[in-house]
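Subgroup meeting minutes
Present: P.N., E.W., G.H.
Scribe: E.W.

1. P.N. recapped why we're keeping a running log of single-chain structure predictions: easier to compare across weeks, and new members can see raw inputs and outputs side by side.
2. G.H. added today's entry (219 aa).
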Amino acid sequence: MTTTSTVTDSAGLSVYNANANVGTGSATMDQSSFLTLLTAQMQYQDPFEPVDNSQMVAQMATITNSTGIAEMNQTLKNLSSELTGSRLGDAASWIGKSMLVQSNIAVPDASGTYAGQITLPSATDGATIQLVDGSGNVVKSIDTGAQAAGDVTFYWDGKDEAGETVSTDALQVKVSGASTSKISTWATIAAVQSPADGSSSKLITALGTYSPSDAISLM
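Output recorded in log:
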């Protein structure tokens, strides 16, 4: 559009240009646009009333802060997208599942069942798995019989022969009659912790906190 503008001639006098063309421009101003405008302002300022230094610094600080806030907002959007995206969604899908982890402590699941496995480095004619309470009492003994080398699973419903529940606490797993290279137990995943720094999610169970990579098996 056409409008009236004021410029200064070589003698420092103000003159008017009634036919100056002014474009519609952009509705937003970035840092580059601001510096262009500031340069023009300094070029056409009144030499008898130059722009005050403090005003110039204030203007520069304003555009710098605006740019910084815009960049920070974008960073927060990216972080929010990451936390609510596939990484957190994948980890959350583990909640309620059971994971087999290396541990000599067994805890009951929602149905009251204790389960796990022992790993035998060599064949054995027979081994006994004992579940021991905090006082050192053997709550349950499980005879495995003759077994080849490898993994041997075990489970117990937490009840005695009369069908009465006799244990709901964490129990230590001990093996007699054979050597073992590893003892593992099942634990239910109660919650998932997804760190804000983007590191691997943590799986929270009654046995403690584990990384997904700690899971020997998942069901």
